[in-house]
Amino acid sequence: NSQLHGYTEASQTNAIVGWFFDNEETGWRANASVNFAFAGPEGYGEAMLGYQWQDWVETRVGVQAFSGPQQSRAELYSALNNIYLEVKGWF
Fold first, then answer.
1. What are the residues whose beta carbons fall under 8 Å from the beta carbon of 34, sequence distance 6 or more?
2. What does the pLDDT read at residue 40?
3. What number of other Cβ atoms are within 10 A of residue 4's Cβ?
4. What predicted TM-score, i.e. pTM, was given to this entire model?
5. Which of 23, 33, 72, 78 has the least CB density, counted as fewest CB within 10 Å?
6. Euclidean distance between CA atoms 23 and 39, whole angstroms
7. Per-residue model confidence (pLDDT) at position 2
8. CA distance 58 to 87
9. Rounded distance, CA 70 to CA 74, Å?
10. What is the DSSP letter of 13?
């Protein structure tokens, strides 16, 4: 968080709100979180949905987004906004 918001003093505050779901019986996983800086305002959000097909393979689809005012660190990071598809395997 300190890298994202460029904090230089401990008094700068932010809030993180998240929701996480993981069901080993069905194989479904999901999460959503938002990180918001009060001093900026700057923010980062992420959402992901995944499914574990077998004991050795899992797929995930998600989105990551940065937002902030012009000339802020988060605005520079907005070039990293993305939608992703991830396939993980264990062997």
1. 16, 17, 18, 43, 44, 45
2. 65
3. 19
4. 0.70
5. 23
6. 37
7. 55
8. 6
9. 9
10. -
- State how far the alpha carbon of 49 is from the alpha carbons of 14, 27, 57, in Å: 25, 11, 15
Exposed/middle/buried for residue 62 (C-beta within 10 Å: 0-12, 13-18, 19+): middle
For residue 5, the model assigns a pLDDT of 53
pLDDT of residue 14: 74
Question: Which residues are paired to 86 by β-bridges?
Answer: 60
Query: What DSSP letter does each residue of 43-89 carry, written as one string?
Result: EEEEEEEEEEEETTEEEEEEEEEEE--TTSHHHHHGGG-EEEEEEEE
